[in-house]
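Obj.: predict assembly geometry.
Materials: sequence records (below).
Method: joint structure prediction, all chains together.
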Amino acid sequence: MPELPEVEVVRLGLAEYVVGRTLAAAEVRHPRSVRRHVAGELDFVARLAGRTIWAARRRGKYVWLDLDADCTCGEVLLAHLGMSGQMRIQPPDAPAETHLRVRLGFADGGPELRFIDQRTFGGLSVEDAVAGVPAPVAHIARDPMDPSFDLDAVVAGIRRRRTGLKRALLDQTLVSGIGNIYADEALWRARLHWAKPTATLTRAQGRSVLAAATEVMTEALAAGGTSFDALYVNVNGASGYFDRSLAAYGQGGRACPRCGTAIRRESFMNRSAYTCPRCQPRPRHPHP
DNA sequence: CATTTATCCTGTAAGC
DNA sequence: TGCTTACAGGATAAAT
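Observations (raw structure tokens):
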């Protein structure tokens, strides 16, 4: 599932292959993939034709391409990969992928940009940027790799909440970029349980779990991301290999790399939470 | 207001 | 074998 490291790998690919090029015709093959473009499919296509891509940027799990030289107040092509979205660079004559949703051709006739998305939770839209950030991203907190990320402020924000620790880590308005995989890995590294009430979190524990999240996402980025179920690939179709380094996520029944105890899978918010029962003891009063 | 839950979607895999 | 069911889960609207 694309979280910060996977989206950053995609951003790097976009920076390499499409920045500096000028868009020609766009083709929307599935309306759901542009549903966030409120002015509709035709307007989406019309707004892209002839536009030059000036930069590829990211915040959390959102990635966008600047369509105006002045990035502080121009338009951008905003993308969210959702669960299964992929950005691929392909020759224009390459056969259509099974879940090809949007094709973006270029005026130079070179490789085109394709948005492929099996589950269609992701999508593209053209948005106005305000102070350099697309409007739908304005409420998304800075991520741990942002130079302006304020760790102590985020720890304070988490401790102000009245919820469970993992819920807070997944809340993109507190800190962005962390999804289910890296939340479980960060909690495992910090030896904290997902149901620990944020009210009982010390400042040191808060700093520890965020440092762990930053560390594990940095390592995952260096490995090209995590391709847990082969739905995540880079712009050239290659998988990342950080899944081999996961200690907790998806490891139910397997030995904890630290103490050998079997990793436990629990139900959490209609999904899963993986913990080591020994390294991450359940809090006395767990938050549901 | 703060917090939690249901919903969107499709392919894979497990269970009967 | 073939059908049904559970599961994967990011963001947000709706509910509490």
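Conclusions so far: The two ends of chain A are 24 Å apart (CA to CA).
To do: check interface contacts against the pulldown list.
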